[in-house]
Amino acid sequence: MTDPTNQPSTGQPSTDPARTPATFRILIVPGVNPDRWLRVWGERLRDVPAELVVAEPADAEARLRAGDADAALVRLPVERDGLGVIPLYDEATVVVVPKDHVLTVVEEVPVADLADEVVVVPGDDLLGWSDAPGAPFTGGDVPTTADAVDLVAAGVGIVLLPQSVARLHQRRGLTTRLVPEAPGSTVALIWLEDAYDDLTEEFIGIVRGRKANSSRGRGAAPEEPPTKKSGTESGRSPRAKASSGAGSGRRGAAKGKSSGGGAAASRTSGRSTTRRPRKGR
């Protein structure tokens, strides 16, 4: 990684091999699955293993700033000062309810149908839906999402979560339904601007779907030198060209005979059939 005390950020990746780490550390929060990006990383940068660092959403930004990772896949919002931020996708919100709950009669729950429900909001809430419908749970503090799901399983209220997080907390007897009108959760790639280097650039390109031959990072495919065209690169071999020329010669000879030009026309066409294609120099 680039040492911010010795080399200020210029917006361009560092290529100093002395600053290249043995691994590239990617911090992730629960529910974010980077598998497809890690596969591409492994194909392009086999000499630099990717290492996953798992953090709770509330701690993710602080741990990146503390140097625990080189880049992070987190949920917005974050404090953007000193960070590079690329929003990647918005995740749908679901409501977690018991399987026999009345809301399960539909596949998608309108927000208005939540008005009569007791909504449990955990201390590590990921949605920040300040004006969510329904009555707030008043039975005490609920520190974590896992605690909130326990309350739902006990028949006390409902909880709204990003879809992938709800999958992580699947319980027997519970199910989920989409709430399309609810605010979603935005997943973003973030990194420290002062620590930006060629490996960070490579990971940005992978996450954005940049192909290897268009990558600007360390894993960029080397450019191939231009090749000179030979006579056989036109799609037909010299033999095929000669054969074609011979055919035209026969046609020319026949035409010459019919017009009285006979031998002269044949000789002219014959010379054209014996000319070989030029080889490129």
Write the layout of secondary structure elements.
Blueprint: E1 24-28, H1 35-44, E2 50-54, H2 57-65, E3 71-75, E4 83-91, E5 93-98, E6 118-119, E7 135-136, H3 145-153, E8 159-162, H4 163-168, E9 174-178, E10 185-192, H5 198-207, H6 238-259, H7 262-273
Parallel strand pairs: 1-2, 1-3, 6-7
Antiparallel strand pairs: 3-10, 4-10, 5-8, 5-9
Account of the 3D structure:
This protein is α/β, with parallel strands linked by helices. The chain has 3 domains: 17-90 and 186-214, Periplasmic binding protein-like II (D-Maltodextrin-Binding Protein, domain 2, 3-Layer(aba) Sandwich); 93-183, D-Maltodextrin-Binding Protein, domain 2 (3-Layer(aba) Sandwich), CATH 3.40.190.10; 236-273. The chain is built from 7 helices and 10 strands. Strands 2-1-3-10-4 form a 5-stranded mixed beta sheet, with helices on both faces. A 3-stranded antiparallel beta sheet has the order 8-5-9. A two-stranded parallel sheet has the order 6-7. The longest helix has 22 residues, at 238-259.
